[in-house]
Specification:
The complex is a heterodimer. By secondary structure, chain A is mainly α. Chain A folds into 2 domains: 114 residues, no CATH class; 162 residues, no CATH class. Chain A contains 13 helices and 5 strands. In chain A, the strands form 2 sheets. Chain A has a 3-stranded antiparallel beta sheet. In chain A, strands 4-5 form a two-stranded antiparallel sheet. In chain A, strand 2 and strand 3 form a beta hairpin. Chain A is globular and about 60 Å long. The N terminus and C terminus of chain A are likely disordered. By secondary structure, chain B is an alpha+beta fold. Among the domains of chain B are: 86 residues, Alpha-Beta Plaits, CATH 3.30.70; 84 residues, Alpha-Beta Plaits. Chain B is built from 8 helices and 6 strands, in the order αααββαβαββαβαα. The chains are: A mainly alpha, B alpha+beta. At the A-B interface, strand 1, strand 2, helix 2, helix 3 and helix 6 of A face helix 1, helix 2 and helix 3 of B. The structure holds iron/sulfur cluster (4 copies).
Chain lengths: 307, 292
Amino acid sequence: MSTKGKVHLPVGQEALEVKGWFGAHKYLVLRRISQAFFLFLFLMGPWFGIWWVKGNLAGSMTFNFLPLNDPLILGQMMAAGHWPETTALIGGLIVLVVYALIGGRVYCSWVCPINPVTDGAHWLHDKLNLQKGWQPKRSARYWILATVFLVSALTGTIAWEVVNPVTMVHRGLVFGMGFVWAMVAAVFVFDLIVARRGWCGHVCPVGAFYSLVGTKSLLRISAVKRDDCDDCMDCYAVCPENQVISPALKGKADVTPLILSPDCTNCGRCIDVCAMDVFRFTHRFDARVEAPSDAVSNPESPNRNAA
Amino acid sequence: MATAAKPKHIDRRRFMTDSARMAAGCAVAGSLLAYVAREAKALPDQAIRPPGALDEDAFLAACVRCGLCVRDCPYDTLVLADLGQDGPATGTPYFTARDVPCEMCDDIPCVLACPTGALDKGLTDIEDAQMGTAVLVDQENCLNYLGLRCDVCYRVCPMIDEAITLDLIHNARSGHHAIFAPIVHADACTGCGICEKKCVLPEPAIKVLPVRLARGAPGEHYRLGWEEKDAKGAPVVEGIIDLPDRLPGPGTDNLAAPGGYIEGLVDGLPSTPEGAFEGGFDPVFKLPEVTR
Ligand code: SF4
Ligand code: SF4
Ligand code: SF4
Ligand code: SF4
């Protein structure tokens, strides 16, 4: 139909042709490996009796030496009126610092056990060509986060933990499932039928919390070669938080190509799916924009970093 | 001025409605969450928390459900509550004494493992633990109470002779034997549940209950006169006259109560049979006759 030179190919088709399957799925594969790895660390004990890591994502102990604790849970604990012991405080602080450096939502895309579930739901959603469904504002999750703290303070319990699918699924996998499958199914169905990208993109207060943690994080995606962008929109199609792309990709010459929104999960799918290799991982002080690769010389390229 | 203000005005209005909608949604979701969180506070009676656990309300504010206590328990006593199981708040640690009781480890590894203080590090001697209190709930089926010598709960108790003693009581059935009644002393009982585990009955006659169920509480102002007297070494109220104790039996001022009737006192009833006493009980032993 299209009289233009470019036919609208299925999402990722172009990248597949240009970069091959692995090139077009590199970060996806790495992420799945990372998710499996972090799960496996916890499963080595119960499965093989190798207790390098004990506990679960809410709190763990590695080599009987390194405590790690979920800072969101510690926050709710303090709201509920309990001051944690030093071990948990140190564990929480380590996690906080790490995610503050590498990007809070790296937790979401590289560690969280719910992420494969919601990714799967989104994949099927695409295949079935379903409606977007209910799309509450992206800010809804921050409201929910605030509510969680309020309820913790009012009830004197760590409130979100009675329903949190993230820790429940992880605990279920490591300590025994019980009815946790129902929880997984609920999140899947919610994302598939009720709201596209609903859980992680609009609701989950854990994701919202880690967004806040990573506001100033160093590790960033940058649309360095944005001048090469051929407007195929594939990155928008694969990005779980696609509102973060435009400011960087479509920014004027004096706007940073860095995706600075804390909502970006650093999943790297945009890098995978872009046939033009527009995006890459870099740090937040690297605001370079590279010249378009087909132009022999482009005088307006190096833009100064203002921030 | 009006043209510039209009979009701003609309913006602000939209912002306000959006926020109001969001707040309302959160109020609903928050109430639901609060409801579920409060529901989760209901701890079933057979679920015993690990040693050193803060009291249930404080515990639910402190435990992150990491399971480190579970992992460090060498006897696999502790488990984390499954979701949807009719048990304690999901993911929190507990044990069921009849399945695996607490073996009362000297070094209390579960408490040491807890990163948050949900299990209180102040507990350094496991014998001070108060996970629950054993209660001999069924005297009708307890073999010792039936007059046999089972004694199992007493013998297995790590706090033998402190937490459980065998107290002799008269066996009224046989008339001349003793019942070795297992008596739990709540102050010493740690609630480890070994007695419940080892009770030989198909359903144990002795069970560990949460302290809140197992124990009553005296009125704050109650004093035990005899203890006060012992402590003081003299009558608590000075100059009080110690009246003679009244004993049951003839010669006291008992009313005509079970045992016999005085003729004519109640219409239509036969007179007291010959030899029956005239009121009160027939005493087990008689005071020596005193001639006044
Ligand atoms: S948003 Fe929540 S559920 Fe989704 S990946 Fe992040 S933490 Fe996990
Ligand atoms: S004292 Fe020992 S047996 Fe008892 S719960 Fe703790 S670790 Fe387990
Ligand atoms: S170690 Fe402490 S915080 Fe972790 S599950 Fe046990 S009691 Fe809860
Ligand atoms: S629970 Fe039973 S065995 Fe354990 S200390 Fe108490 S009386 Fe003894």
